Amino acid sequence: MHYSFSVVLAFVASSALALPALLEPRQSTETSGSDQQSHDEASTWDAGATRDFRIHESCNTTEVTQLRKGFADTMTLATHAKQHILRFSNSSQFYQKYFGEAPTGEAIGYYEKLINGDRGNALFRCDNPDGNCKNKGWGGHWRGENATGETVICPLSYETRRPLEQLCAFGYTVAGSETNTYFGSDLIHRLFHMPAFGDDHVEHFAEDYAGALELARTNSSFATHDSDILQYFALDTYAHDIAVPGVGCSGKASTSMGPAQTSTTNENAVESTAEAALAQSTPAQVPATATPPANPPTPITAGTASTAAAVPSVSHVLKNM
Question: Which of 73, 77, 304, 313 could disulfide-link 164, Cβ–Cβ 3.0 to 4.6 Å?
């Protein structure tokens, strides 16, 4: 079949006119940079969140550097502790050792709170506003009623706390050494004293390593919010999984103090005396819905009369670290 040249031209022309309608570009939804920024600011659900730990201006450059390194170590310990539980759940020998038969959610939650909890209501300072750093053996304290969101870090902490890289070195064992040997685990303790992280729920139900294991066996519902146990678990799992893979440095509980423990002996003696004084003023309350521990722990009263006299007013709710 033959078509005239004019007919072909007419067909091509009509087709070309129809194409723009078929291929009309999608309407642009782009906005200017300023409009997009305004939209993001208006819709950000966590606007105003504080993501960095707050350090008071009273801390000098060296103290700030050590604190920041300590916080980084805290995050490392807490992150691995959470990941260990998520990986092995309650089948982990370490979980069973420290948390017994308790459900995993609470322990995971408190580690997660350390990692991602808002940090706006926690302030670390170095100016000794309550005068307690002058007390022998004090590495710091939570300010309690004076300022519930503040903790003081005393010079002793900067002089004695170790970095996480030294975990399992110099004779350290989890069972036989103090939990505050390392700045990272020491700061876990400090953070849990502040309501922003401990919810006034993380407490001291176990006195020491042996007490921690006993609590896990006899009343595991308290173990998952025991401050020392949360530290022991983080240290033990990190030592075994990361620091010295497959070996760790769990050690065995001992009544004698080796070289690795001597730097914190006096500090913990003062801490025990302060806790005893506080307990006499405001006895710890066991939740009504929970079963009290079979053998409720009592504060260690290792201090002498002269030591006890040096303890400031219990209204400070002091916690020696």
Answer: 73
